[in-house]
Amino acid sequence: MGEAAARLLTDDNVGELEPAGGGVQAVVRDHDATFQPWVGIVDGAFTGDCDCGIPDDDLCAHAVATALTAFHARIAFSGAATPPGAAPLEPDDAHYRQAVQRLSPRQLADLVAEHAVRDRLFATLLLGAAGMLDTTNASGSLATFRAAVTDAAAVTTGSRWQISDVEAVGHRLAVEVEILCAHPATPTALDLVEEAIVIWDDLSGHLRDAHHVTRTEPEEIADPLLDAHRDLCERLDLDPDEIAERLKRLLARCHYDTVDIDSYADLLGEHADTITSPTRW
Known about the structure:
alpha+beta
């Protein structure tokens, strides 16, 4: 067991640690197979939980390698952790997991691949979970989002546009920003999301003026954009003062109540009191 765990560590096969249920988990690649072991302290005993098939009473090599990685990173474990398999599942989640267990690996692979072809967000999440997102994927997603931003900026420049056109470009922005944020965070992505927020703020005025015929509330588009903005700020580990400056610039360019300063309170810290909320129209 120790030799196998040492091999996994030497070959750098233990992925990024993630907190889960008071313990930690990581994706571990072992030859052609992939597992996600969890380790934590349960009832006073150090415990491992892995989908490799080793009985729960023993720590498999994948769990040992994950534990050693956590010890090296000086991870603090909760004294009363809950393994993933012991956590209660939502009814729908449990139903789908039961369905997955009834499928053969080939059936499951076929379903996943077919859905990935139809759904770009799912495809991106799939590649990310498999560690297969590369610079080409990220560049393509950035280019696609940039095109969506450009189209949104131009949607009302002609003489024959309709409210439905504004709604359509808004929903496109909401979908594309979620795909963009499934990729590694970059300063370029953050700048582009900020541009999208400003453009949508301007477009939201048309929805407010035509509220009696619209089928989309401005917040349906603004919320995903702002969620992406907060997420990118956090993942890029920006200092509170830089986040504050970015928000001030956004507020100076936004004329409606698109940007909710209160939602950034945990990222701004003491800088939260220095930013004036936007005027509501």
